[in-house]
Amino acid sequence: MRRWLVLAVVMGALSAFAVGAVVARGLVPCDVLEAQPSCYVALRAGPAEDVMGLLDVQGAPAYATTGELLLTTVAVDEDLGLREWLAASMSAGVEAVPREQLFPVGRNRDEVAEYNAALMADSQLTATLAALDELGFDVTGEGALVAAVVEDAVTDQLEVGDVITAVDGRPVTDNRGVVDAVQARRPGDRMTLSVRRDDGEEQVEIVLGAAADDRERPYVGVLLSTDLALPVDVQIDAGVIGGPSAGLMFALSIIEILGADDLTGGAVVAGTGTLDRDGVVGAIGGIRQKILGATERQDGGRAATVFLVPSGNLEEAQGAPVSRDVTLVPVGTLDEALAALAALTEGREPLGALALEGR
Questions:
Q1: Which of 104, 156, 216, 318 matches a 20 to 30 Å C-alpha distance to 290?
Q2: Burial 163-201 (b: 16+ CB within 10 A, else e)
Q3: Does any domain span residue 91?
Q4: Beta strand pairing status for 214-219 and 95-98?
Q5: Phi, psi for residue 108 in degrees, rounded to 5
Q6: pLDDT 10s digits, 28-39
Q7: Is 106 inside a domain boundary?
Q8: Is residue 102 part of a domain?
């Protein structure tokens, strides 16, 4: 009620009815008034899919699995009317978040989709590397691969598919080498990149820009992956799913298929979390919706009884309004996730496990 009173005072001559109509239609800019439906999107439970069914592994023996490892997703409702916005604001299972969190100002839907697809591709590669490292395979990096170039990039001389092999004459073998070199500089500094394109190599000079959210932080405007010589060919068909948050589940599924140990013991285990090359699990958005999607599967599959939660999301995860009991297991690294699964298959309680009871 207070929102409408404040709005009526701000708008002055407009009647309460007229003000409501203006807000419902999103005619007031969000930077003037954020509390209106057009400034938000709703996050709902999305599908949960068994990653093992998405994997194609060539070049090494594959082991049969007895359970499921589910990646979890969030469905986004972009077009909120007043009724949907109010319902999302009051629902425990739906979360209304500012639109700019998913669709940054200045980025159209195609650009956001392209960026999320690039993040997904990078998460698959990083998960593959982390899994192969865990399994003892030898993985060699051959440079930083340009996976995406955004519209406001500081140069038009870099293309998707380029491989950066050196920065200012110093060789780099992976994306981290380039990122570290950039972060050590300041906006306005010049850098020379050695770039392999097709069968040739050229030098690209760039001037570092400044990040929109931090003018002291250097910015290039490209998303980098790593160009690798892999001993095993791993393909993951994630369809239209985008973003980096399935990294942990990708890595666990690769280890499940290529490793001799049965990680699930026949159970249905869901989870989420970004993953870096060192096996560190990062927090994600929409954790409650992902837990709901895993315990109330839209495809009619078996509900997850265990959910691997990034440690940074544990407090929020405990508020998921589940209808079935599920065990939440906080994990901060890939090794912790593997230890938790080992404990479960041996009948022990994983470290830090919490029982979330169905309502």
A1: 104
A2: bbbbbeeeebebbbbbeebbeeeebeeebebbbbeeeee
A3: no
A4: unpaired
A5: -85, 175
A6: 556 544 556 777
A7: no
A8: no
